[in-house]
Amino acid sequence: MAWEVFGQQNGTDSLRHLVELISDNAHAQAGTEHVIGCTVVSEVFFLPRDAWIPVADLFPGNLMQGKTYDSEAHDGATLWMRILASLPIGSASRAIAEEGARYGQEYLHRGRLGQAAFRALVLDAYGRKCALTGESTAPVLEAAHIRPYADEGRHVTSNGLLLRSDFHKLFDLGLLTVEPDYRIRISSRIRDQYFNGKAYYRLDGQQLAALPDLAGDQPDRDALRWHNDNRFLA
After folding, report:
1. Does the structure show a pLDDT above 50 at 99?
2. Phi-psi region of 37 (alpha: psi -120 to 50; beta: other; left: phi over 0)
3. How far is CA 7 from CA 10, 11, 18, in A?
4. Who contacts 228 (Cβ-Cβ below 8 Å, separation ≥6)?
5. Do residues 176 and 167 make contact, with C-beta atoms less than 8 angstroms apart?
6. CB atoms within 10 A of CB 20
7. Which of 114, 128, 204, 207 could pair covalently with 186 via S-S, beta carbons 3.0-4.6 A apart?
8. What is the C-alpha to C-alpha distance for residues 222 and 181, in angstroms, rounded to an integer?
């Protein structure tokens, strides 16, 4: 899953190389299966060089795994206060997450921030199964925004559906939707305009085949209502 979602952002040029590195670190025999942790880092910000904070005494040179600090404990509280003092006046941790830049630096096109992390979280929440069909072939599964990112949609699991790629396309085009009661609706325009769609109409009126176990990860009903009202071509 780490390779499927992040690819070369894992720091290797191939899945095989990644597995070799994992085997070396795990001191395991080559060819054995490994279950590894995939740490998703989000809401990242960088201080300008002149505001860098010396942390040599807090982070050992041989650190091999992500280290965290309790912001209410001594070391963590001291570090956090120094970070807050370095941020622009009026900034706060929540503002970094919700009011910061929604796109990266302009080059040829503007890349969405957090898209890979969003896909990783949605894949995990749905147990790697398409919400509509239960399909579990990972290469064809995509994380769809219920309310599009360009329309103030957020990179949160409750604003996502894990969909097979063809259903993702139809969902974005408004040719299918999911009602707030988690029933699937298929637009008649598939039949009227493309003279087909039998495979899709079988799902019309059915409940979603897969939902996240955690209530907070399940599709937000207000977001679904927005898609019904603003995107679905009934």
Report:
1. no
2. beta
3. 6, 8, 10
4. 177, 179, 180, 185
5. yes
6. 13
7. 204
8. 11
Would you state the pLDDT for residue 97?
43
What's at 120, amino acid-wise? A
Residue 103 has pLDDT above 70, yes or no: no
Q: Judge whether residue 7 has pLDDT over 80.
A: yes
Distance between CA atoms of residues 36 and 125, nearest Å: 17
186-195, 196-205, 221-230: range with highest mean pLDDT = 221-230
d(CA 140, CA 13): 22
- At 10 the pLDDT is 83
Q: How far is CA 11 from CA 18, 43, 95, 105, 131, in A?
A: 8, 20, 30, 22, 31
